Amino acid sequence: MRITKMGGGLIRGKLFMCSFAAKKTTTARQALFDRLVAKGKNKKLALIAVCDKLLKQAFAIVKWGAPYEADFTSKLVLNP
Prior knowledge:
Blueprint: H1 9-25, H2 27-38, H3 43-64
């Protein structure tokens, strides 16, 4: 993942601040953050990955018009 300065700075900043809250309140985001930090990634880069996840989720919700599901699991992921 590459950190760039593309896009609106205000929106990028707000999304980055939201990633702090998402990391603390959502277990899936906390697991993503912890997994990346355990791999040796920088904490800022791990927060950017949380931002990316939030943005993709928001885009999918708007695109498909579906309500948010906290316990959503992708059909593409194999569950044992």
